[in-house]
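debug: dumping io for the single-chain case to check the tokenizer round-trip. Nothing else runs in this session.
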Amino acid sequence: MPVMEHLVEFQARLTRAVLVLAVVFMGTFFYADALVKWLRVPLQNMFVPSQLTWEPTDLPTVPFVFLAPAEALWQNVKVAGLFAIVLAMPYLLYEVWRFVVPGLHVQERRFVGPFVCISAVAFYAGVGFSFFFVLPFALNFLISYGVNAGFTPQISIAQYVGFALWFLTVFGLIFEVPLALTLMAKLGWVDAPFLIQYWKWALLGSFVIAAILTPTPDPFNQTLMAGPMFLLYWVGIFGAKVFGKNTSAEESQTGVPTVAMAGAGGGGSVAGASMPNSSSGDDYVGVPGGRSRQETR
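debug: decoded output
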């Protein structure tokens, strides 16, 4: 299509996506108070996987305050907007897919579709893991430390909502690490031996990234974020080993016809090519010392 037709199609799909997102936002804003209450659950409760229930902790009651007239309203808008994006994400991805699919080859269509679906599932898994396991431990540690130091807990609703939403979003992105490494291996940029060789740098990078992304400077939360990130790095190594591009096999397959053609030109058969002509050493191009072509490179 011409450029203008592409722009018209982009405008139409963007308009539909915005309208659907606005409708979902109105629904989530209507239940914003309930969503904020659910977001407060990890503050004074711990999830018990064996019973699939929340158990209250020993922390005292933590009151929430707002320090600006519009702070409480703005936090409801923020929470409702984030949940609206999460709920409308399947339709948003569908519109993106319908816009880009005409320009993809058949093999690219087979690859992009599962990649988008798996990335969405991984993001939701990261958000759920953070909400049920990481966020309660982090909040319990921070509040307990302040209470044991003799301070009275009193949290601003804006600070708490920002802390919780940032934690959930970051862990959703962290769970994309194995998929990103698998994609890089599929494209031939990295491979499993390369990733294993630099695992120490990956461990250091996990702590550096965690130090940048954590909303608090304490080492406890940095470890809570860096630990899963480093474990997911090894999951990505497994994915790179299973689904990575086998470059050595492809090079050997592409090298066989070249050797066969050289043998056919020198002696007319493979058997004749295995014995170089003593009268003319330049007729046959062999591998010196019996080494493979990859070893000579």
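debug: round-trip ok. The chain has three domains: 3-175, 186-245, 252-286.
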